[in-house]
Design brief:
Number of strands: 51
Number of helices: 1
CATH architecture of the largest domain: Sandwich
Radius of gyration: 55 Å
Largest sheet: 7 strands, mixed
Length: 681
């Protein structure tokens, strides 16, 4: 593109072979009419002489000029001196541009000389083309932002080429058609994408919007341009949890307590989510009481926490945006009934200890969780004489959730000639717990049984045989046949396992005594070396096992001896031999049957056979992809290498195996040994 140009042709030549005169056509743009899409161009036909270009005066000679198919003609005198420039003709011409504002025009020119100049010179002519600067036609808008949120306003600047230009603006946002939003716009416009546009892109957070600018000069369309920007769905447009339905799943609790109970309640939750601007709910999730759930409807584990327990529910929509709702549940704190103290002893009528008394007094302390005073509450006291096998209910009360008191059992008589076992039962809606205490017969240093076949030291003789209730030490050898241990009951808060160092077997009420390694009731075995060294082993009803040792007067930490990894099953299945371990892992080993394969596919410097051995199914399904070790089992003179060829289901089968050799073979005996180790599903 240019605003001027020229074409020069030789008119005369000297005898020395140099140019004497030249004929030149020159043009230049005088003005540009943007509104009418045209340029005014001036032109000149010029004769240029050089050192030996003298042409004597001659008559007028004809000239012709054609510019963009417009013809001009006339006559001129071609006489000229040396080193001179002479204008033979000139003029102006209006050249219309093409519709897009561009223009390439052609021109030609000629001048009649009809002179003798180192020979005859007749008509000299030339031609050329000119490329005019493009006249701006259609306006290209400038946008204030390349990306805006829906609901915000986009400013559009219209840098029009002529003040007479106006514009029509249209948009197309995922609609398949153009929508006009401005007409007659001159230098600027605005567009505010509505939030409703988000309905058109339910799977996206943004989309491309095109703006078409149609430029007019009056009613004449000058052209159109298209620009674009990104319309973003605002962050505020996100799904929300519209409802969370919660119901008690432990039978009877709603009717009894109308509340959620720690350690007892479990809830069923159904989440309802609503999309935003046509989005679809794709995922549901919840967090509750330390657990995660990824379903719309689920039942929780039994609630471990108490107080205000948040249920955080989340929905994710097709735009991958999330909405969250926190629902606070009030959970009543609850513990099973706790017997903190239960001690029975012989006493007088006012409860003072009396080893020879025939009344028994009880010191007891227990707690029952009230649960808004809707929990059941009852405690019962039973007694059993040592020579009888049945328990008698001697006291029952339904009055209190907590007690720390003394009860004188004055309505019952406890024969001083017999031991008695006392039992306390404390029961609420969920559980009954018990503790026992022994009451000895009346004290006497030595007593003989009425049959004459029994003797007792330290207490009345109650049976035939030998009984000793005094602390005893044997200073010579003692040999016991058919030795039987009597359990010692540790069933109140007065007991501390740190102080239980005498060898023996003990029954432990775990929630009452101090320094017990578990909350499960069980049995304590003590082996004593001396006051500074002993070992305790505690085994619960749930088969938990703990052990600790006292060294130089100091107790070491309890060690959990419950779990020891061991083999729980061995066997054979198909080609496999297997071994299952108690930690959930399994190992397999086996060898495929020998097959003959051709290893003759050339691959570089080796030969291969793909999928020579197909995948082999495992007898079990693994939780994740197990570790697989493969090795070739070679027959004589059948050397080959192996590599894996893919595995479509690695938790259920081995990978397929390809084989290779350094030389081609039409028949190689192939067998593969596998070793597999992983965690079972």
């Amino acid at each position: 593109m240019a605003i001027s140009g020229s074409t020069t042709v030789n008119a005369t030549m000297t005898s020395g072979g140099t140019v004497g005169d030249a004929l030149q056509f020159k043009w230049s743009v005088v003005s540009t009419d943007i509104a009418n899409n045209r340029s005014t161009v001036s032109w000149q036909l010029v004769l240029i002489s050089y050192d030996y270009g003298l042409i004597n005066s001659v008559p007028q000679k004809a000239w012709n000029v054609t510019i963009n198919e417009q013809d001009f003609s006339g006559t001129a005198n071609v006489g000229i001196g040396n080193n001179t420039t002479k204008t033979l003709a000139s003029g102006t011409v209006v050249i219309p541009h093409d519709s897009d504002g561009t223009k390439i025009f052609s021109y030609s020119f000629s001048q009649v000389f009809d002179i003798t100049f180192n020979g005859w010179v007749g008509t000299v002519s030339g031609s050329g083309t000119g490329v005019l600067n493009t006249i701006p036609r259609a306006t290209t808008p400038t946008l204030s932002d390349v990306s805006i949120d829906m609901g915000e306003t986009l400013s559009i600047t219209l840098p029009r080429a002529s003040n007479s230009f106006t514009h029509t603006l249209q948009h197309d946002f995922h609609a398949g058609e153009w929508t006009t939003f401005a007409t007659g716009a001159t230098t600027s416009a605005t567009l505010t994408p509505p939030l409703s546009w988000a309905d058109r892109i339910p799977w996206q957070t943004s989309g491309t919007c095109r703006i078409k600018c149609i430029t007019y000069n009056g009613s004449t369309q000058m052209g159109s341009t298209i620009v674009q920007f990104t319309a973003v769905v605002p962050d505020s447009v996100k799904p929300f949890v519209s409802n969370v339905a919660i119901s008690e799943q432990t039978e009877g609790l709603k009717d009894k307590f109308n509340a959620y109970i720690q350690g007892q309640s479990k809830i069923k939750v159904t989440i309802t989510g609503t999309g935003a601007r046509s989005s679809l709910i794709q995922k549901y999730a919840a967090q509750f009481d330390g657990a995660l759930y990824n379903e719309r409807t689920f039942t929780t584990n039994i609630i471990k926490s108490s107080g205000t327990v948040p249920l955080v529910t989340t929905v994710t929509d097709s735009r991958k945006r999330q909405g969250t709702l926190t629902t606070n549940l009030t959970v009543l704190a609850y513990e099973y009934p706790q017997i903190k103290n239960f001690r029975a002893y012989r006493s007088d009528a006012v409860g003072a200890e009396d080893p020879d008394g025939n009344i028994v007094t009880i010191d007891l302390e227990f707690d029952i969780t009230p649960l808004n005073n809707k929990n059941n509450k009852v405690f019962r006291i039973y007694s059993k004489r040592s020579d009888l096998g049945t328990w008698d209910n001697i006291y029952t009360s339904y009055g209190d959730y907590s007690m720390n008191t003394q009860i004188i059992l004055s309505d019952s008589t406890f024969d001083t000639d017999y031991d008695y076992q006392l039992k306390l039962e404390v029961e609420d809606y969920f559980k009954m717990v018990e503790a026992q205490s022994s009451v000895s017969a009346a004290y006497t240093l030595v007593d003989y049984h009425s049959s004459g076949k029994g003797i007792s030291f330290g207490k009345v003789a109650q049976r035939e045989g030998f009984d000793c209730y005094l602390d005893s030490e044997f200073f010579n050898k003692a040999h016991f046949h058919n030795l039987t241990y009597e359990l010692i009951y540790l069933n109140s808060s007065t007991f501390n396992l740190n102080n239980i160092t005498d060898s023996g077997e003990y029954y432990v009420a775990a929630t009452l005594v101090k320094n017990c390694p578990s909350t499960q009731n069980g049995y304590l075995s003590v082996r004593k070396y001396n006051d500074s060294y002993c070992i305790q082993t505690y085994t619960t009803y749930a088969n938990e096992r703990y052990e600790r040792i006292k060294v130089a007067g100091t107790w070491r930490t309890w060690v959990d001896k419950t779990f020891v990894v061991g083999v729980i099953e061995e066997g054979t299945s198909g080609i496999w031999k297997y071994r299952k371990w108690s930690n959930g892992f399994c190992e397999l080993w086996g060898k495929t049957n020998q097959i003959s394969v051709a290893i003759d596919n050339s691959w570089g410097n080796i030969f291969t056979c793909g999928d020579a051995v197909k995948s082999v199914a495992y007898p079990f399904t693994f939780k994740t992809e197990p570790r697989v070790t493969m090795s070739p089992y070679r027959a004589t003179n059948n050397n080959f290498g192996i590599y894996t060829a893919g595995n479509g289901n690695p938790i259920k089968q081995t990978p397929a195996v390809s084989v290779w050799r350094g030389t081609s073979s039409s028949s190689t005996q192939v067998s593969i040994e596998f070793y597999v180790y992983g965690e079972l599903a």
